[in-house]
């Protein structure tokens, strides 16, 4: 028997990989013929969220207020990543950009330092440790930080990977294992055994998914600028700078819900201004790309994971709505998705993600 997955983003690919780890035959269908969101029939679709993601594996730094139900998923998935990356590295020779250097969170001024102190207290209340460091200690770790930063926190356990490299590595591993791929737009809601189609999952059920856009920039530096992921607050606005293994730098953190499917001028300006405030050497970089991804958001920010019943009475597994945490949650989603597809019960950790919660 062949298990068919619809959706070739990070969730679909990781689920396919975990299925092959269990000896299953897999066929993967994706509407896009490229990473950029062009459908097989030539029409435009939502920009691929995985292609434009930052790639931070940050169950501590990504914590936000009033998302308590999401925290166990983030932690469990971060814990699952070392195993996933070890097994993937044995299945392909391609790089993934997996980097365990750690994360620094920086406050631009005294008001931001107070905000960072409150955030760290929240981390502590949620049993998520973050180590305070002085601005001098932070600059010892990252010498090109601005000289007048007002505060810093170190989170060694928050890591990152390069989503574009990760997807290529997964595709290579799956191809080596005999997984077949096709590029087509699926119109039958009952087609497929596992639905990992992001915003496209609305075809398969009445799910309250909405596109949440995030502007993201790719820069090339004349010399290495950072070793750690640097997240920061500038006038209480978040910004992140991610060093890539190929000498590039990724900048992001905007989040908007409007109709602009191209990079927003205000977002690009804000990202560059705030990044330069924290790391002045960003001014020396070249701009390679400004783009935007559409993340599949849900009303409660939890994923949608569970079964729906097809017209013929059989069940179809839906795994979507991972919003801002698709890369981080992929290890858990892939592992649990494969287990459930092979006959296991949905584990307690995923029960809050039941699609039925939206039918009441």
UniProtKB/TrEMBL annotation:
InterPro entries: FAD-dep_OxRdtase, FAD/NAD-bd_sf, Gly_oxidase_ThiO
Enzyme class: oxidoreductase
Highest taxon, organism lineage: Bacteria
Pathway: Cofactor biosynthesis; thiamine diphosphate biosynthesis
GO biological process, one term: thiamine diphosphate biosynthetic process
GO molecular function: flavin adenine dinucleotide binding; glycine oxidase activity
Pfam families linked to this entry: DAO
The keyword NAD is assigned to this record: no
PANTHER family: GLYCINE OXIDASE, SARCOSINE DEHYDROGENASE-RELATED
Identification of the protein by name: glycine oxidase
Organism: Rothia mucilaginosa (strain DY-18)
Taxonomic path: Bacteria, Bacillati, Actinomycetota, Actinomycetes, Micrococcales
């Amino acid at each position: 028997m062949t298990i068919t997955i619809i959706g070739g983003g990070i969730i679909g690919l990781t689920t396919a990989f975990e299925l092959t780890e269990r000896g299953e035959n897999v066929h993967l269908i994706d509407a896009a013929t490229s990473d950029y969101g062009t459908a097989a029939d030539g029409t435009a679709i939502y920009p691929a969220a995985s292609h434009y993601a930052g790639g931070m594996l940050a169950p501590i730094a990504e914590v936000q207020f009033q998302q308590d139900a999401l925290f166990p998923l983030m932690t469990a998935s971060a814990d699952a990543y070392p195993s996933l990356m070890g097994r993937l590295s044995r299945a392909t020779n391609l790089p993934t950009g997996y980097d365990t250097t750690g994360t620094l969170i920086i406050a631009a001024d005294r008001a931001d330092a107070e905000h960072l102190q409150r955030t760290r207290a929240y981390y502590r209340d949620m049993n998520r440790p973050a180590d305070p460091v002085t601005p001098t200690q932070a600059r010892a770790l990252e010498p090109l930080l601005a000289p007048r930063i007002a505060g810093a926190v170190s989170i060694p356990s928050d890591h990152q990977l390069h989503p574009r490299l990760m997807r290529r590595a997964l595709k290579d591993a799956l191809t080596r294992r005999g997984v077949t791929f096709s590029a087509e737009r699926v119109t039958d809601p009952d087609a497929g055994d596992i639905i990992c189609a992001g915003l496209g999952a609305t075809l398969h059920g009445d799910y309250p998914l909405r596109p949440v856009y995030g502007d993201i920039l790719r820069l090339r530096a004349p010399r290495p600028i950072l070793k750690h992921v640097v997240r920061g607050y500038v006038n209480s606005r978040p910004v992140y700078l991610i060093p890539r293994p190929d000498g590039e730098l990724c900048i992001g953190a905007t989040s908007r819900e409007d109709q602009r499917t191209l990079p927003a001028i205000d977002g690009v300006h804000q990202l560059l201004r705030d990044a330069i405030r924290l790391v002045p050497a960003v001014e020396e970089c070249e701009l390679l790309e400004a783009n935007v991804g559409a993340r599949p958001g849900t009303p409660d920010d939890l994923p949608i994971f569970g079964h729906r019943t097809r017209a013929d009475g059989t069940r179809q597994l839906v795994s979507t709505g991972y919003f801002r945490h698709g890369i981080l949650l992929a290890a858990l989603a892939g592992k649990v998705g494969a287990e459930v597809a092979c006959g296991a019960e949905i584990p307690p950790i995923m029960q809050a993600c039941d699609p039925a919660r939206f039918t009441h």
